[in-house]
Write a structure and sequence with these properties.
mainly alpha; 59 residues; 0% strand
Length: 59
C-alpha cells in the first residue's frame, strides 16, 4: 500500500515528470487552456468530451 501512496505523491510532483523528460499533467492543462481556451481544459472535461464527430466530417 505504501508503494501506491509513494507513486501518487510522485505523480503530483512536476519535478519527477521533468526528470523523466516529460511535462507534468497540470502544465499540459495550462498550455492547452492558454492555446485553445478554458473549454478544452481538464476542469471542463465533464462538460465537453471530444468524439469522432469533432475530428471527422462526412465525405
Amino acid at each position: 500500500m505504501r508503494d501506491r501512496h509513494d507513486l501518487a505523491a510522485l505523480r503530483q510532483d512536476p519535478t519527477e515528470w521533468h526528470r523523466r523528460g516529460m511535462t507534468a499533467p497540470a502544465e499540459l492543462d495550462r498550455m492547452i487552456s492558454e492555446r485553445l481556451g478554458a473549454q478544452f481544459s481538464s476542469t471542463a472535461r465533464s462538460a465537453f468530451e471530444p468524439s469522432y464527430a469533432d475530428f471527422f466530417t462526412a465525405a
